[in-house]
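Researcher: First entry.
Model:
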Amino acid sequence: MAEFSDWFKETFKNCYCEQGNLIDEKRFAEIVQLVLDNEADEESRAIFEEKIKSCVKSNFTFENEKSMREEIQKKLSAHTGEIPTDLAQTIRNSVNL
């Protein structure tokens, strides 16, 4: 797990400039997914949570990703029809991607 923690810290650090501002939103969104998937270890999660308390842009990105995930979960829970085999492509098509 230490290997993951080292990767997380390094990747997390590279999301920010020297002044501590979020500069790599795409990479940060990937880290958010790891946190939301409960794949981040305790130390990594603590670093993450501390940063989103003090950085408005980081907090906004986290809350946005979390809200999207919750909305998708609600939609899928309410869906009673058959789920397509190629769900990812079906979702992309439905949102014009």
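Researcher: Second entry.
Model:
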Amino acid sequence: MPPEPSFEIPARPQRRYPYSGGVEYEGETVFRLRPTGDRSESDLRALVEAILESEPYTYGDWLDLPMPLYLVHDGQTGDVFRVAVRDGTVELYVLPATESAGLRQFYETLTAHSDDAWTVDLTVERA
């Protein structure tokens, strides 16, 4: 059995506020969680939503996107991060103030609610 991932964050995105309005991020750190079993996108979405409906999470989703994308707040750790379901993975997007504890807790909750083993890949794009 592989060791538990640490969810150490090697780089954080930088938040920018352009004159045209809104917010943009430069750089990206994403943890991609992939189940070892075959799960459909709808199964993964249902699993993620079941987790988000439980304590300690509050979340919001963006409508009119081609994939499920949620802004998640972990009330226990205080962390905020984005969660997406895409291409057979659950993706955890680090925001500037996200800490490892919230990501780790989401992963542990995901594995506890699933019979699958999960692999974790990290992608970092620096600003």
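Model: Note on the second entry: The beta strands are 14-16, 24-26, 28-35, 57-61, 69-74, 80-86, 89-94, 118-125.
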